[in-house]
Amino acid sequence: MNTLGVIAEYNPFHNGHLYHLQKSLEKTNAKRTVVVMSSTFMQRGEPAIFDKWSRAEMAIHCGADVVLELPLPYACASADYFARGATKILNAAGCNHIAFGAENPDLKALEEIARYISREPPEFSEELRANLDQGHSFPRARSLALQKFLNINPELVDNPNNILGIEYLRSIFRENYPLKPVVIPRKGSPYHSKSLGEEFPSATAIRNHIYRKKPLDEMERFMPEASLKILKREMESGNGPVFASSFDKPLLARLRGIRGQDLSLYPEIAPGLDNRLLQLAGKTTGWNDLLSKLQTRCFVQTRLQRIFVYTLLDITLSFREEINFPQSPLYLRPLAFNEKGRQILHELKDREDFPLITRPAIRRLPRILEIQKMIDLESRATDLWALFVSSPAYQKSGRDFRIPPVSLS
């Protein structure tokens, strides 16, 4: 059956996401939709504002049929690894199409860039290294190299959704997945905008509105009714919101506590950054203060925030080796589904190479060591996140082993 695949974070689900789903279904004529969604921490290193089950429930109410978890080692990682994990799951789930949003929805141009990067021409690699040596961040260094050798609009390789789209395409080409790409023009405010001024504001703007404790009813124009209802329910019950600043003290405690250890054991740490990070941890007041003092042309916000998460959860380079990252065996774990989604899961239940995990007591499943380690990490991330909700009932550990997928008829 024609099945649409979508990769998302839904942090939280808003009108732009609804528009994307509806246009994707319209373009592909798909009869059902599989979403692969980040769990507790996002690709940019930020925590989820609400837990993964409530965000998945929003998606089901708004048109998705099943939401599958993107394991944390891939969810909170560079765009390349994020795309590898998510496309691998979509392919395993039997999707025919992958639809993604882009600021510049020129699929032919995006495919050309993806294929060029995958070929890694020597002159491109040399230019990339030269740009990195000049102190540029990796995304900027690559953008400059691509502009030099390809006749392209710079915005094609600078905008966040375009960057992810290129990585989705690279992953599809690399693995020869039978996923037909469809690009949906991104509508509304820019990705980083903090203003609610338009019909399609960014998720950043919505989170900022909640952080500033503005009236939730003001978001009725910007979120689907079902999504806003779940958001209000979670807030009223004390199960969120959670922000980066919630981790101020744990982050500083962790960094000050590992002063004698080698931070170079963690992913994305560059020479010199480890010492600077530890020094500033003793002079700053929390996440945002530390971030502002660490940021440079080379060390951008997203990379630094992911490093914060790696240290908080002890995601070391050796841990990545233990799970064979980024070639890790993965699993299919539904967070929410409806009747169509139930049928999809039934079709997937007997896959030995991609175990379907539906029971709350997943500690006993499966027997594949790498998957078990990822599940344990997922549980630790949820337990840490839960400490910062207001309700004591939701702060207890072990939620990943107790809470079943949300099932909607």
Features:
single chain; 409 residues; alpha/beta; seven-stranded mixed sheet; 9% strand; Rossmann fold
SSE blueprint:
Blueprint: E1 3-8, H1 15-28, E2 32-38, H2 52-61, E3 66-70, H3 72-75, H4 79-92, E4 97-102, H5 107-119, H6 122-133, H7 138-149, H8 160-175, E5 180-185, H9 203-211, H10 225-236, H11 248-257, H12 273-281, H13 287-294, H14 301-313, H15 317-322, E6 334-337, H16 339-348, H17 369-386, H18 399-402, E7 406-407
Helix pairs in contact: 2-10, 4-8, 5-8, 6-7, 13-14
Please give a structural write-up.
The chain is 47% helix and 9% strand. With 409 residues, it is of the alpha/beta class. Helix 5 (107-119) crosses helix 8 (160-175) and helix 13 (287-294) packs across helix 14 (301-313). A seven-stranded mixed beta sheet has the order 5-4-1-2-3-6-7, sandwiched between helices. It has helices at 15-28, 52-61, 72-75, 79-92, 107-119, 122-133, 138-149, 160-175, 203-211, 225-236, 248-257, 273-281, 287-294, 301-313, 317-322, 339-348, 369-386, 399-402; strands at 3-8, 32-38, 66-70, 97-102, 180-185, 334-337, 406-407. It has 18 helices and seven strands. The two termini are 20 Å apart. The chain has three domains: 3-103 and 183-243 and 325-407, Rossmann fold (3-Layer(aba) Sandwich); 114-155, no CATH class; 244-322, no CATH class.
Shape: globular
Give the quaternary arrangement of the chains. single chain
**Rg calculated over all Cα atoms:** 20 Å
The average pLDDT is 92
CATH class of the largest domain: Alpha Beta
- Distance between the amino and carboxyl termini: 20 Å
Total number of strands: 7
Class from secondary-structure proportions: alpha/beta
CATH topology of the largest domain: Rossmann fold
Total count of domains: 3
Q: Which strand order does the major sheet show?
A: 5-4-1-2-3-6-7
In which range does the helix fraction lie?
A: 40-55%
Regions with little confidence, pLDDT below 50 for 5+ residues: none
Secondary structure tally, helices: 18
Order of helices and strands: EHEHEHHEHHHHEHHHHHHHEHHHE
Largest sheet entry: 7 strands, mixed
β-strand percent reads: 5-15%
Please give the CATH architecture of the largest domain: 3-Layer(aba) Sandwich
